């Protein structure tokens, strides 16, 4: 059976580091690192994530400001709020929960956040910095995946990695971080041919495709490490169950190490968000 990479436990460690850094910033510089979270609409999953972010921020001693906007909010109103937060010296990090309602332009919203406060790492300047090997604020989910991978592979150099999925939030920044760690990286996507055999040759598979239990044991080389980014709700005998993009039952019998869902990558995303907020706060001291 594969070694389980426990995201909950690792995330608690990250949050302890965050709490120490918050204490230091308060004591030495008299600032309270503060995260502003913006939620537009009533998407139930987004409401849970936002609640958890605010809860964890408070537990770590950080400040948090929640802005809940109506689903009908206009682009101008949202832009005006972000402009206000950009100019508020007491706000160090800004996060707009995604996805946004379809009438809003996500790219425009992301680009309107000041890059120094972009704790999601989605602003084009931060994306460019990561792509050119000068990362500043790194997207939280891939950052969390790297921490998890380092538990099993302190040196990632030369590893063959397949990232399944090419989203801006996970697939692309994940590939950039792995490349920076000297891995040989393949990004597989819906048009990729022989995706199964590509995965079967990989030392590490990162699944971020958004399809429930898409990857099964036949795709995995014995002993490989599997990082499952997917969070999919499925119906099992009338009950809602959360599963990843990986068929955990079968893959755990073949892999050397695997992340569970829930309790894997998800909690790390929130830990890294708060880590980014303390980093942003420290940089804004200068
Ligand atoms: N602005 C952003 N929007 C979104 C991001 C993001 O990084 N920035 N990522 C996802 C959602 N997300 C954070 O926002 C997120 C998803 C899941 C979890 C998590 O801890 N999941 C738990 C299960 C939770 C449950 O029971 O439903 C787990 O995996 O154990 C945290 C954060 C999209 N939007």
UniProtKB/TrEMBL annotation:
Protein name, entry field: Bifunctional protein FolD
Residues that, per the record, bind NADP(+): 165-167, 231
Description of how the protein assembles with itself and partners: Homodimer.
Summary of the function given for this chain in its UniProt record: Catalyzes the oxidation of 5,10-methylenetetrahydrofolate to 5,10-methenyltetrahydrofolate and then the hydrolysis of 5,10-methenyltetrahydrofolate to 10-formyltetrahydrofolate.
InterPro entries: Aminoacid_DH-like_N_sf (IPR046346), NAD(P)-bd_dom_sf (IPR036291), THF_DH/CycHdrlase (IPR000672), THF_DH/CycHdrlase_cat_dom (IPR020630), THF_DH/CycHdrlase_CS (IPR020867), THF_DH/CycHdrlase_NAD-bd_dom (IPR020631)
Family per similarity comment: Belongs to the tetrahydrofolate dehydrogenase/cyclohydrolase family.
Tetrahydrofolate dehydrogenase/cyclohydrolase catalytic domain ranges (all copies): 5-120
Record organism: Halomonas rhizosphaerae
